[in-house]
Amino acid sequence: MIDDLRTLVEVESPSRDLDALTASAKAVAAVIESRLGGQAVLVESEAGPHVHWSAGGESQVLVLGHHDTVFPLGTLERRPFTVEDGRATGPGVFDMLGGLVQAVHGLATLDDRSGVEILVTADEEVGSGSSRALLEERALACGAVLVLEGAADGGGLKTGRKGCGTFQVSVAGRASHAGLEPAAGINALIEAAHQVLDVAALGRPDIGTTVTPTVASAGTLDNVVPAEATVVVDVRVESVGEKDRIEAAFAALAPHLDGAKITVRGSVGRPPMPESASAGLFAVAKRLLPELEGRVVGGGSDGNFTAALGVPTLDGLGAVGGGAHADHEYLVVEAMADRANLVAGLVKAIRIA
């Protein structure tokens, strides 16, 4: 497993870099074929190649992951793959190349792999725009989904996820000289400040809804009343009802300054993954590893999409570790075998059922 993990980490795969993702997809396909046999097919898309492998027979379980990472080319030179003091480090080890390797090796222990499919997408980190239709199709065809995202804190499985999305609020005002005639302008920055407060007030942390302005920009020169401004907002919700409320509230945003205009783009693109979607599979996982705990987390994954279809989905089956998307990202080597066997055990149980 360490050798295969090194192979994948050392082929850098930043989202949207088509050349890098093509090389990464070929490396993922080669690892799958070398351990499981058969043919891993590269499914071309505008976001890069997705990798699909099927053992044949009646489809019963989809093992779902992604090979794109958030780290730009050159990260590997600064932070090479290393195994030291029981930890593997390097770009993407935890999110989520380690999970891919564990799953492949777990499946390799099964004498009979019929009914199993593996789908490794190329654009999960940037919203799954090109892969969503494919992963939903395969999830419905299989009827159960195991998601290889990294484990929750302490090695727990992710039994629920918030829905998440991004909104952009754009303000159009009117420029004027900030010294000679400031009142002749419509200050887009002041309007944007009003909008930030309005948007932040939509949050309901008591029921799991967070609405967080994260990026803002306005203005061109220090002596010009700004004519344009934008505010980007991160949204997380635990229920479909809150998804609908938030989307309606953004659509209803209105300007405070006379003459200002507001344009809103975005949505809660990943629907919530309720705990009910994972309950049956989590019970099976607990029988296999009684010490496992389930966690509801704020981050989204492709499991949100499959759970929204009503397909039983269990997430967080990948690497034990931490530091996703950060320079201190790591994987706990000692846990790799147990996680590989957990995937294999779940597959066996799903097919028997």
Describe, in plain words, how this protein is organized in 3D:
The structure is a single chain. By secondary structure, this protein is an alpha+beta fold. It is built from 10 helices and 18 strands. The protein has helices at residues 2-9, 18-36, 75-78, 93-108, 132-142, 188-200, 240-251, 279-288, 302-308, 336-352, and strands spanning 40-43, 50-54, 61-66, 82-84, 87-89, 116-121, 145-147, 157-161, 163-172, 176-177, 210-218, 224-225, 228-237, 261-270, 294-297, 313-314, 321-322, 330-332. The strands form 5 sheets. The protein has a 6-stranded mixed beta sheet, with helices on both faces. The protein has a 4-stranded antiparallel beta sheet with strand order 4-5-18-17, covered by helices on one side. The chain has a 4-stranded antiparallel beta sheet with strand order 11-13-9-14. A hairpin with a 7-residue loop joins strand 17 and strand 18 (330-332). Helix 2 packs parallel to helix 4. The longest helix has 19 residues, at 18-36. It starts with a helix and ends with a helix. The mean pLDDT is 97.
